[in-house]
Design goal:
379 residues, alpha/beta, 44% helix
């Protein structure tokens, strides 16, 4: 008798929609990594994908949009997800509110389900109208945890929050975020043309990569660079990210103040090259978890100045990759940026520390950890 090969697992990955956010990018890297290892992977968006899905398709990942933008469309979307879940062996869901609707779909389809949570502070998870969702998230975690195989925390700082919401300790898996280190380094050369960006050859460059959201605190970076120009000379700020409600007022302020040193670049496909151009990567967040932008900066060897929130201190200070400051302290943030920009020896030590620490956070290691978890869930 000829032994038949064991079929590879079929994974349905659910998310609200695919957009240029950290949690979504991590989901994309995971989907591509699982597909490259032979698993059959589908991504289902409750809404519609807001990015180019061609790279996913090239790696064999199918992307399905349900178009359930209005809340009244969600029940029908759950039934469609349940049908998709029956065609899979396991359901994986990322962030609110996919972790609600996709878990219900998995229960209806009688499939094991894994949740990936990316938040440390529920106060930043609000509805479109600004209504807080912390109580709703806690209730659905408490009610649905008995039907959930595991909840993945990408940062150790999330674990107390998940426990407080009723997630069983034995069901919490810590799998840190990862980035495709080798690919990022390959994309970092050649660096972009400084003249095209409006930056002189001898200017120092500070880069802030994040969506324009209140907790990402781009205003602190603007203020710090404004001050540093009076002390260090020609210092420029690169802001990479979208978010009209906050970005546009900042752009108007820069125009009114004649701040031609502040560059609002929107979404860019050359982020590794922009990092390679930069002297320091900053993230003065008032709330955060385990930001991919910091992992990307480490992969390129860029010193970091960031707020001590979430798991950032462990990422940055313990391996000597940068400096952490108290959240909301613009004076301390500015001083830390000054030290990195003005002290060549300190800059070199932090750059080396960033490169060395990046080995821990390669996306291949993240995918391997998920594979082991999936195997246990299916067993």
């Amino acid at each position: 008798m000829v032994n038949q090969p064991t079929p590879k697992p079929r994974i349905l990955m659910a998310v609200h929609n695919l957009r240029p956010g950290g949690a979504e990018r991590q989901l994309i890297d995971l989907a591509r990594g699982l597909s490259r290892r032979g698993l059959t992977v589908r991504i289902v968006c409750i809404g519609e994908p807001d990015i180019d899905t061609a790279p996913l398709t090239e790696d064999g990942v199918e992307v399905i949009g349900l178009g359930a933008v209005r809340r009244r469309d969600r029940p029908g979307a759950v039934l469609r997800m349940a049908r998709l879940a029956r065609e899979a062996d396991l359901v994986h869901c990322t962030m609110w509110d996919a972790t609600l609707w996709a878990r219900i779909a998995a229960i209806l389809a009688r499939r094991p389900v894994i949740v990936a949570d990316h938040a440390t502070d529920r106060n930043v998870q609000v509805s479109r109208s600004g209504r807080r969702r912390d109580r709703a998230i806690a209730v659905h975690n408490r009610l649905l945890d008995p039907f959930t195989y595991a909840t993945v925390a990408c940062a150790e700082s999330q674990i107390p929050l998940l426990r407080s919401e009723g997630v069983a300790a034995r069901k919490i898996e810590y799998i840190p975020n990862g980035v495709p280190t080798a690919a990022l380094r390959a994309e970092a050369v050649p660096p972009p043309d400084r003249e095209a960006l409006g930056i002189s050859d001898d200017a120092r460059v500070v880069i802030h990569i994040a969506q324009f959201r209140p907790e990402k605190n781009q205003a602190a970076t603007y203020e710090a660079v404004r001050r540093l120009r009076g002390e260090l000379g020609d210092v420029h700020a690169l802001f990479v990210g979208i978010g009209r409600a906050i970005k546009e007022p900042m752009e108007r302020r820069a125009t009114d103040e004649g701040a031609d040193w502040a560059h609002f670049l929107g979404m860019r496909s050359d982020v590794p090259a922009l990092l390679a151009l930069s002297d320091v990567a900053v993230l003065p967040s008032t709330s955060d978890t385990m930001p991919l932008s910091i992992l990307e900066a480490m992969a390129i060897g860029v010193p970091i100045v960031a707020s001590d929130v979430g798991d950032i201190a462990g990422l940055v200070e313990e391996p000597g990759a940068g400096i952490c400051v108290p959240p909301g302290d613009v004076d301390a943030f500015t001083d830390a940026c000054r030290r990195v920009l003005a002290d060549a020896d300190l800059h070199a030590r932090l750059a080396a520390g960033a490169l060395g620490a990046s080995r821990r956070f390669d996306s291949d290691a993240m995918v391997d950890s998920y594979l082991e978890l999936i195997d246990r869930a299916l067993a």
